[in-house]
Please model this.
Amino acid sequence: MRTDVTIIGGGFAGTAAAITLARANRSVVLVDDGKPRNRFSEHAHGILGWDSVNPIELLRRGHAEFESFGGTIVQNPAETLKESRRDGCRWSVSLADGRDIDSPHVLVATGITDVLPAVHGLPELWGSRVFHCPYCHGYEVKGTNLAVIGGENPGFTFNITKLLTKWADAVTFFPNGLELPSQECALFQALGIAIVDEQVLEVGPVEGGGVVVRTRNLQLPFESCFTGPRFEPNDELLRGAGCDVVDGWVRTERGLTSQPGLWAAGNVISSPDQVSQATGAGAAVGIAIDQALFAETLP
Ligand SMILES: Cc1cc2nc3c(=O)[nH]c(=O)nc-3n(C[C@H](O)[C@H](O)[C@H](O)COP(=O)(O)OP(=O)(O)OC[C@H]3O[C@@H](n4cnc5c(N)ncnc54)[C@H](O)[C@@H]3O)c2cc1C
Model:
């Protein structure tokens, strides 16, 4: 297969870029294995005009729009990304089913993997009763008695624990192995955050909503629960292609990596991006790629 642009990742960033490019009359193949990060949540919040929309349904609509503008979706994982010199192409993407797609420009929008703390029962409640982002689900836990379980991301976890006092009536923090620096400890006290320094053994659902947090000595019910996962960018393809990495993240400038014709957008390069930001970043990179292709055809 040969196309103007190959996009790896059909989540919010990749699909927005795909629509922008298809509407700019570019041939685009969108390669996706169908696992957007927020697939565990039934409702997505903070999306203009679409609050509480089901994220899978929103993407389904986006994919249908892309196809209606002539785009092609390939439902298959991309396995490798290598330089190509075929037919004026710079990059070749190999799929798990053995097909290759060659193109002068590739956008990688493969998102993030949330690595949850190793607490029994927590993965089953992730996205339905346990959340991480106050700006996605803070409003939904307004006025509740809330637990925060320490995850593998100390700075992020301390920050959301403090912020969540803006919404919740009471916040209890389970460090769960995290060491709370004295400065944070003082701030937690000032904000009225209770600290239960016992390892969390299990989290389970409470009938009618909420969670129960179990430690060796305690079993405490809460109306809502947050944690701070480690954010692991799904950037193996970008790293394998030789992209510069700074502080653990692939470096981009207006979406372009350090490799010519290789672009990135969304959570794969920016963990704080919510749906709207990832969508905006994808659309902006789509425009940049179209203009780069246009510039390449000028005499
Ligand atoms: C539990 C939870 C709830 C959330 N709730 C909200 C909310 O309410 N509001 C909000 O604004 N944000 C929310 N978010 C954040 C939201 O999920 C992200 O902002 C958004 O998904 C980022 O879009 P993206 O395109 O960068 O990545 P994603 O949407 O994760 O898309 C990445 C895509 O790439 C695909 N992919 C990865 N590797 C490959 C490969 N090798 N080959 C082919 N395809 C590949 C994946 O299958 C996926 O479809 C939530 C996140 C979580 C974890």
About this structure: The CA atoms of residues 213 and 219 lie 6 Å apart.
